[in-house]
Design goal:
Number of domains: 3
Structural class: alpha+beta
Strand content: 5-15%
CATH class of the largest domain: Mainly Alpha
Number of strands: 13
Helix content: 40-55%
Distance between the termini: 42 Å
Number of helices: 17
Shape: flat
């Protein structure tokens, strides 16, 4: 899975668009970063910017944005309705795919270190990047705001996590953190009653509702000994919610902010609202996603609703997304286009056409053309993906066989493994072609001077190593998928046993084809120790794949003869 993180810095300028433009230009100049949104506010005098990309690119873009804000914004002249204490007030990093929260916290620390050392600016780590418990909450870190910084920085308990202790009157300080993705999500009700909608919102949101004596609406508010109103906590953690009437649609909605979708997912929020609404005689008619959502959230929703139906979860991402859309009615108020609503797909749109996005005929025509790529490595990966697809098909068909209802979950698990192998091999189709292209680019580097020759030689060596690693991954992934083929030959739908056999043959071909690419690239490698290691490991994989293929075909042959 490609590593992606999102960054949502808030800058203390929301009125001068020329300043905002210069900051966002600095972000967009970093290759590999996609600017998703710029949201300025005049009253708050604050702009929220959203961009996404691979971790190191995002860190670089965030650093350049912080640097530019330091050049352009003077906090001593700033005023606005929103709490603030720095030119770049907050800068959270958010894991999207292939990155853990712990890794995101490390990236936040890398960014803070650079800001402190290279720019001489101070700041604090907050949320999951916090190094002290009392600094986890952003409100605590920002207490006192810009005007209180001289006193705060003089307090040993509030020494900055990075940068100097001295107060920088022009810049202030920055809070750099790591937090989960926030999803703005609305659920539609078949009512026009805001009061009844709020009844649902108060029941599901984390902070719940105020406790009253007797009458739930008009009764006396119950308080603790300090006079603070007591509350009945809601069902869902990390959820803020309110009911409102939307004139445009003529219905009420439960408007929610899911502040941590790893604690409360979109589908869990939807189900909770359905249950609460039904108790009050209302019905959920659909829902609406405001802004973007990570792919993993939609995949999780699709699997959740398939599991409720006791159907195999080992289907394609497209099918899982379709199930999620229909189950939560995300297309009730308007079309839901995954390519425009799912972050990872939005980024793919910018990357041009991949080999795996071509038609079968288009892929074959591209391979048969005068271009040297795609070559044997990409074809091996694709053949392996077809093999994994066949094994997955057998698992899915088996999960639906009449009389095997109690076994659906076991077959579903095999199908999920097959889908994972298929996805990885499809990814390697383009990675192998990219690896070849990188070798060609390295050979085209200048070699006039001694320094240029050294740079070129190192680039060729690195690119060649990568061109060995990629086909080796093809070999390993294809071989691992054969476990599923063997299981499906043994316990899967008898009528599809031949498909498991063909899948095994494809996987073995992928292993052997990948090894040919390992061999040919190893010839030109200077690091002979590394080359020998990969060749030795590759030979073992080929031998193991041939042996396993023979075992699977023997099972297949026996099952066919048994009828």
């Amino acid at each position: 899975m490609k590593k992606l993180i999102e960054c949502v810095p808030n800058f203390s300028e929301g009125r001068d668009m020329s300043i905002i433009k210069q900051i966002t230009d600095a972000i967009e100049r970093v290759e590999g970063v996609k600017l998703l949104d710029v949201d300025p506010g005049k009253a708050t005098n604050r702009t929220v910017v959203t961009f996404v990309g691979e971790p190191q690119m995002v860190i670089e873009a965030a650093f350049q944005a912080i640097k530019k804000s330091y050049e352009l914004i003077d906090m001593s002249q700033h005023s606005g309705e929103h709490p603030r204490f720095g030119a770049t007030d907050v800068c959270p990093l958010i894991p999207i795919s292939g990155v853990t929260m712990e890794e995101c916290a490390e990236y936040a620390h890398q960014l803070g270190k650079r800001v402190g050392e290279e720019l001489g600016l101070s700041g604090y780590y907050y949320e999951s990047a916090a190094t002290k418990a009392e600094r986890k909450n952003l409100a605590s870190v920002r207490a006192g705001e810009y005007e209180g910084l001289p006193q705060k920085l003089a307090d040993p308990n509030w020494e900055p996590d990075f940068g100097p202790v001295d107060f920088n009157h022009k810049y202030g300080v920055t809070a750099i953190g790591a937090r989960d993705f926030l999803v703005a999500y609305n659920v539609n009700l078949n009512t026009t009653s805001t009061r009844r909608a709020n009844g649902v919102a108060f029941e599901v949101r984390e902070k719940g509702k105020i406790k009253r004596k007797g009458n739930k609406l008009l009764g006396e508010i119950l308080r603790d000994k300090d006079g603070t109103p007591l509350r009945v906590p809601g069902k869902l953690k990390a959820v803020k919610a309110i009911g409102w009437y939307i004139e445009e649609y003529g219905v009420c909605q439960i408007s929610m902010n899911l502040t941590n979708i790893s604690i409360t997912s979109v589908h869990e929020a939807f189900d909770a609202v359905c249950e609460s609404a039904q108790k009050r005689g209302m019905r959920v008619t659909g829902s609406e996603l405001v802004g973007l959502i990570p792919l993993k959230a939609m995949i999780a929703a699709g699997k959740h609703y398939l599991k409720k139906q006791k159907r195999s979860l080992g289907v394609s991402d497209d099918e899982l997304i379709k199930i999620a859309i229909k189950s939560m009615g995300l297309d009730e108020l308007g079309p839901f286009d995954p390519k425009k609503k799912i972050i990872e797909y939005l980024l793919e749109e910018e990357g041009g056409v991949r080999l795996v996005d071509k038609s079968v005929k288009g892929f074959a025509d591209e391979t048969a053309s005068e271009s040297p790529a795609p070559g044997g490595g990409s074809i091996s990966a694709y053949v392996g993906a077809l093999g994994a697809s066949l094994g997955t098909m057998v698992a899915n068909l088996s999960s639906h066989k009449r009389g095997w209802d109690k076994r659906w979950e076991s077959f579903s698990q095999w199908a999920e493994k097959g889908q994972n192998s298929k996805k990885k091999l499809l990814q390697l189709v383009d990675e192998d072609t990219n690896a070849f292209n990188h070798i060609m680019e390295a050979f085209r580097l200048p070699k006039d001077s001694k320094e240029e020759k050294e740079i070129r030689s190192e680039a060729i060596e690195n690119a060649t190593q990568n061109a060995i690693e990629v086909p080796f991954q093809i070999m390993q992934t294809a071989f691992d998928s054969m476990e599923m083929m063997k299981a499906m030959a043994e316990i899967g739908l008898p009528a599809s046993v031949s498909d498991a056999g063909v899948g095994a043959m494809c996987a073995r071909t992928a292993v052997m084809g990948g090894f040919l690419n390992v061999q040919i690239n190893a010839v030109g490698l200077k690091d002979k120790k590394y080359a020998k290691q990969k060749l030795t490991e590759g030979k073992k994989l080929v031998k193991a794949a041939q042996k396993l293929e023979g075992e699977i075909l023997k099972i297949v042959d026996t099952k066919i003869k048994e009828g």
